[in-house]
Amino acid sequence: MPQSILEIDLTALEHNVDYLRSKLTPGVKLMAVVKAYAYGSEPAAVAQKLMSLGVDYFAVAFVEEGVTLRDAGITAPILVLHPQPSGFDTIIERCLEPNLYSFRVLQGFIASAKAKQQQNYPVHLKFNTGLNRLGFKKGDEPKILETLAATDAIMVRSLFSHLVASEDLSERDFTLKQISDFKEIASHMLEKLDYKPFLHQSNTSAILNFPEAQFDMVRAGIGLYGYGNNPEEDKNLIPVASLKSVISQIHTIEKGESVGYNRGFFAERQMRTATIPLGHADGLSRAYGKGKGYVYINGKKAEIVGNVCMDMIMVNVTEIDCQEGDEVEVFGKLSSASRLSATIGSIPYELLTAISQRVLRIIRE
Length: 365
Fold this sequence. Notes:
By secondary structure, the protein is an alpha/beta fold.
């Protein structure tokens, strides 16, 4: 095998889609979130597989990600969650659908659509119900409706919001308040529009924890890739991405010798270490060093010794029967990205999306 690969299992992806769909009320649409290189995996292959599975919509963060999907042959609707005015012309040229989250971007996109002689161009309106990141606020509805009534350049395809803590049941009351606020905002909008945009608010955790928030469509992100934001749900899903490497060299370290930069580790007894060609330039943070992070070699756990280097890590293989050239699993089937990221107080989203593009992607089905 190449020195390091990220193996993408499309059969696991199909399993996860089926599981999430089993949680939906009949008729509820599924939007697949494939931003950030499909959560660090491979956007073209993942999106093509998802399209074959009949997902209704795709979502990306930025315009360039939408262009990548169009270039890969994705013909389904694509929502761009965080467009900038500099990308409006490209959005229209590539038939992408923008999230308009403020009056600045609403008015700016109307101007771009008019300049390109568009009529009823599909757009999406986002409302802030507590995340305080992007979105119109409650009370903006009259001015939005006035702006919409003054133009035929755009048509609202959907109204949506984003939940703050749907994975945390201790914040259930806050989540229910968000759902209630979104219903109220949506009712104000639907009452005055002479057509019906569809509604969506649920992310993966809300699909699993708050069925009352499914509305017309749900947005599945991390769940597609095998993570349910709690250990019990993780059991129902299969990680799509497995990060693998090889042993480059094995060293015998004598008692008192140090290993790695800044002498980050000292051997308390004679031991063996394996050097693996994967480091912080590949997305394995320095925070995993000094025994916090680990890999699996021949089914056994090997802790990281000393500091993570730019291109390499060293692991303790004293008690592991292994040799140079043996396969190494960093995360995947034996130990998930969720478990590994938890060792440094992080989350699987961060670890998955950090994997460098220099790590070769291999598609399996």
